Amino acid sequence: MTTQSIGGKPTAQPTKTLETFENPNQARDFHIHMEIPEFTCLCPKTGQPDFAIIYLDYIPDQTCVELKSLKLYMWSFRDEGCFHEAVTNTILDDLIAATQPKFMRVTAKFYVRGGVFTNVVAEHRKAGWQPLPRVELTQFESQSNIRG
Protein backbone atom coordinates (compact mmCIF):
# COMPACT_ATOMS: atom_id res chain seq x y z
CA MET A 1 0.00 0.00 0.00
CA THR A 2 1.33 3.43 -0.91
CA THR A 3 0.99 6.38 1.42
CA GLN A 4 1.51 10.08 0.92
CA SER A 5 1.33 12.91 3.38
CA ILE A 6 -1.12 15.79 3.49
CA GLY A 7 -0.42 18.35 6.21
CA GLY A 8 1.98 15.91 7.86
CA LYS A 9 -0.66 13.17 8.09
CA PRO A 10 -0.23 9.97 6.04
CA THR A 11 -2.97 9.27 3.51
CA ALA A 12 -3.69 6.05 1.64
CA GLN A 13 -3.26 6.00 -2.12
CA PRO A 14 -4.84 3.82 -4.80
CA THR A 15 -3.00 0.58 -5.54
CA LYS A 16 -3.40 -2.58 -7.62
CA THR A 17 -2.14 -4.70 -4.69
CA LEU A 18 -4.79 -6.95 -3.15
CA GLU A 19 -3.98 -8.24 0.32
CA THR A 20 -5.50 -11.39 1.79
CA PHE A 21 -5.90 -13.12 5.13
CA GLU A 22 -6.41 -16.77 6.04
CA ASN A 23 -9.96 -18.07 5.73
CA PRO A 24 -11.11 -18.43 9.36
CA ASN A 25 -13.24 -21.52 8.61
CA GLN A 26 -11.81 -23.55 5.74
CA ALA A 27 -13.94 -26.58 6.63
CA ARG A 28 -17.18 -24.78 5.66
CA ASP A 29 -18.39 -23.15 2.47
CA PHE A 30 -19.74 -19.73 3.33
CA HIS A 31 -20.84 -16.85 1.14
CA ILE A 32 -19.18 -13.45 1.38
CA HIS A 33 -21.14 -10.59 -0.18
CA MET A 34 -19.68 -7.11 -0.66
CA GLU A 35 -21.12 -3.98 -2.24
CA ILE A 36 -18.84 -1.25 -3.54
CA PRO A 37 -21.22 1.63 -4.35
CA GLU A 38 -18.64 4.28 -5.30
CA PHE A 39 -16.73 2.65 -8.17
CA THR A 40 -15.54 5.03 -10.86
CA CYS A 41 -13.48 4.76 -14.01
CA LEU A 42 -13.28 6.79 -17.21
CA CYS A 43 -14.93 6.19 -20.57
CA PRO A 44 -12.05 5.24 -22.90
CA LYS A 45 -13.73 7.11 -25.78
CA THR A 46 -14.70 10.42 -24.15
CA GLY A 47 -12.71 10.54 -20.92
CA GLN A 48 -15.94 11.22 -19.01
CA PRO A 49 -16.42 9.47 -15.66
CA ASP A 50 -18.41 6.27 -15.43
CA PHE A 51 -19.99 5.31 -12.10
CA ALA A 52 -21.00 1.84 -10.95
CA ILE A 53 -21.94 -0.31 -8.02
CA ILE A 54 -19.73 -3.39 -7.91
CA TYR A 55 -21.15 -6.46 -6.18
CA LEU A 56 -18.66 -9.11 -5.13
CA ASP A 57 -19.93 -12.54 -4.11
CA TYR A 58 -17.56 -15.36 -3.34
CA ILE A 59 -16.96 -18.58 -1.48
CA PRO A 60 -13.38 -18.53 -0.21
CA ASP A 61 -11.00 -21.45 -0.22
CA GLN A 62 -7.77 -20.78 1.71
CA THR A 63 -7.84 -16.96 1.78
CA CYS A 64 -10.20 -13.97 1.88
CA VAL A 65 -9.62 -10.50 0.44
CA GLU A 66 -8.76 -7.79 2.97
CA LEU A 67 -11.25 -4.89 2.83
CA LYS A 68 -8.92 -1.87 2.96
CA SER A 69 -6.77 -3.24 0.14
CA LEU A 70 -9.97 -3.95 -1.85
CA LYS A 71 -11.07 -0.34 -1.36
CA LEU A 72 -7.69 1.01 -2.52
CA TYR A 73 -7.69 -1.43 -5.44
CA MET A 74 -11.14 -0.25 -6.59
CA TRP A 75 -9.98 3.35 -6.23
CA SER A 76 -7.08 2.60 -8.61
CA PHE A 77 -9.48 2.56 -11.59
CA ARG A 78 -10.66 6.14 -11.01
CA ASP A 79 -8.33 7.69 -13.61
CA GLU A 80 -8.22 4.76 -16.05
CA GLY A 81 -10.10 4.54 -19.32
CA CYS A 82 -11.95 1.20 -19.24
CA PHE A 83 -14.76 -0.40 -21.15
CA HIS A 84 -17.36 -1.79 -18.74
CA GLU A 85 -16.89 -5.35 -19.94
CA ALA A 86 -13.09 -5.18 -19.68
CA VAL A 87 -12.93 -3.63 -16.21
CA THR A 88 -15.42 -6.15 -14.79
CA ASN A 89 -13.34 -9.06 -16.09
CA THR A 90 -10.09 -7.45 -14.93
CA ILE A 91 -11.47 -7.08 -11.40
CA LEU A 92 -12.55 -10.73 -11.40
CA ASP A 93 -9.18 -11.92 -12.77
CA ASP A 94 -7.21 -9.91 -10.19
CA LEU A 95 -9.37 -11.13 -7.31
CA ILE A 96 -9.06 -14.75 -8.47
CA ALA A 97 -5.27 -14.39 -8.69
CA ALA A 98 -5.14 -12.96 -5.16
CA THR A 99 -7.57 -15.31 -3.38
CA GLN A 100 -8.00 -18.50 -5.48
CA PRO A 101 -11.67 -18.83 -4.36
CA LYS A 102 -13.94 -21.82 -4.79
CA PHE A 103 -16.46 -19.53 -6.48
CA MET A 104 -16.52 -15.83 -7.31
CA ARG A 105 -18.94 -13.55 -9.12
CA VAL A 106 -18.40 -9.87 -9.92
CA THR A 107 -21.48 -7.92 -10.95
CA ALA A 108 -20.94 -4.37 -12.21
CA LYS A 109 -24.05 -2.21 -12.48
CA PHE A 110 -23.09 0.97 -14.31
CA TYR A 111 -25.23 4.07 -14.08
CA VAL A 112 -26.93 5.38 -17.19
CA ARG A 113 -24.80 6.89 -19.93
CA GLY A 114 -26.33 7.98 -23.20
CA GLY A 115 -29.67 6.52 -22.14
CA VAL A 116 -28.20 3.04 -21.60
CA PHE A 117 -27.67 1.13 -18.35
CA THR A 118 -24.97 -1.54 -18.53
CA ASN A 119 -24.77 -4.56 -16.21
CA VAL A 120 -21.85 -6.95 -16.59
CA VAL A 121 -21.59 -10.25 -14.69
CA ALA A 122 -18.42 -12.36 -14.72
CA GLU A 123 -17.98 -15.63 -12.80
CA HIS A 124 -15.30 -18.11 -11.80
CA ARG A 125 -15.74 -21.64 -10.44
CA LYS A 126 -12.76 -23.65 -9.17
CA ALA A 127 -12.38 -26.91 -11.12
CA GLY A 128 -14.29 -29.70 -9.40
CA TRP A 129 -16.05 -27.48 -6.86
CA GLN A 130 -19.81 -27.94 -6.60
CA PRO A 131 -22.08 -25.94 -4.30
CA LEU A 132 -24.03 -27.81 -1.67
CA PRO A 133 -27.80 -27.93 -2.30
CA ARG A 134 -29.63 -24.97 -0.80
CA VAL A 135 -31.64 -25.79 2.30
CA GLU A 136 -35.03 -24.08 2.48
CA LEU A 137 -36.24 -23.72 6.06
CA THR A 138 -39.83 -23.19 7.07
CA GLN A 139 -40.61 -19.58 7.83
CA PHE A 140 -42.32 -18.92 11.14
CA GLU A 141 -45.16 -16.46 11.29
CA SER A 142 -44.35 -13.36 13.29
CA GLN A 143 -45.30 -13.77 16.94
CA SER A 144 -45.82 -17.53 16.43
CA ASN A 145 -44.52 -18.19 19.96
CA ILE A 146 -47.16 -16.01 21.61
CA ARG A 147 -50.25 -17.78 22.86
CA GLY A 148 -53.42 -15.98 22.25
UniProtKB/TrEMBL annotation:
Localization, UniProt: Cytoplasm
Cross-referenced Pfam families: QueF
Broad enzyme group: oxidoreductase
Active site: residue positions: C43 (thioimide intermediate), D50 (proton donor)
GO biological process, one term: tRNA queuosine(34) biosynthetic process
One GO location term (cellular component): cytoplasm
Pathway: tRNA modification; tRNA-queuosine biosynthesis
Principal cellular location given in the protein's record: cytoplasm
Keyword Nucleotide-binding: no
GO molecular function: preQ1 synthase activity
Residue sites binding substrate per the record: V65, E66, L67, H84, E85
Record key words, sorted: Cytoplasm, NADP, Oxidoreductase, Queuosine biosynthesis
EC code(s) of this entry: 1.7.1.13
Entries under Gene3D superfamilies matching the protein: 3.30.1130.10
Catalysed reactions, semicolon-separated: 7-aminomethyl-7-carbaguanine + 2 NADP(+) = 7-cyano-7-carbaguanine + 2 NADPH + 3 H(+)
Record family assignment: Belongs to the GTP cyclohydrolase I family. QueF type 1 subfamily.
Chain's role: Catalyzes the NADPH-dependent reduction of 7-cyano-7-deazaguanine (preQ0) to 7-aminomethyl-7-deazaguanine (preQ1).
Name by which UniProt lists this protein: NADPH-dependent 7-cyano-7-deazaguanine reductase
UniProt source species: Methylotenera versatilis (strain 301)
